[in-house]
From TrEMBL:
SUPFAM superfamilies: CBS-domain pair. Keywords: Amino-acid biosynthesis, CBS domain, Methionine biosynthesis. This is CBS domain-containing protein. SMART domains: CBS (SM00116). It comes from Methanocalculus taiwanensis. GO terms for biological process: methionine biosynthetic process. Residues 7-63, 65-122, 226-282 form the CBS domain.
Amino acid sequence: MIVRDYMTKNVVTADTPANRDEILKILKRTGISGVPVMKDGELIGIITRKDLLGNPHETQIALLMTHDPITIKPDASLKEAAEIMINNNIRRLPVVEDGKLTGLISVADLVGAVAQLKIKDEIKDRYVSRTFALWSETPLTIVGRIMEIAHVDAIAILDSESRLEGIITERDLIRCSCIEDDIEVSDFSNGTDDDEWTWESIRDMHHISYAISRIQLPTKPVKLAMVKKVIAVPTNAGVSECALKMKRGRVDQLPIVNGDSRLVSMLYDRELIKALIDYAPQ
């Protein structure tokens, strides 16, 4: 099981010079989570959804992207790819051969490989993560900030009866986001209000106006943006069974529920690829 056989070969890339707005359009159009950045045919960085959402005021790609990203060779094993992604908390590896970008191996590609292994063992504690949830009326602006603080890619959404109602992901946030242009004014003055000289003389006021551009989330409740048809699994689901559900549903996470459809925990794709370390043939 080597990278060459599972990687994506037709890679969507961005060439410099490029701006943030162009990257946002690419992510919205394709639904992918990250884009390699090229210059004169050479890989110089990677920019992701998380970079855009975490730095809404920044427009320069050079300041947003990760420079000199970790790469992997096409003949490396999937186990090695999984170890690199897990240890470095990344979701994709550019595949480079002879200095040229030949493909991209992602967490989703590795999940597809886990599905092929037909592992019947239950997911249990090694792959399952503790989680939290939000109420369906929570504004998207708050949801985005919570996801950033908690370093999660998705959050389960509960209704007023504490039952699982949906899932909100970074992909959904990008889809709902827009570029907002505005003018802000900075006010500089000589002195303060409690300065006697200021009251007895003419205060010099300096106003500086400048344009800002930022990625903005709407204030609408999360229930209007979340995925409502949630793919969930029981607590005794098998490893490859879960991987297959992720692959077919094109999702990055699966809520784990009990018999009453109550949320118990979450299964994230980045945790599930540990199965390649545990079960993949050498």
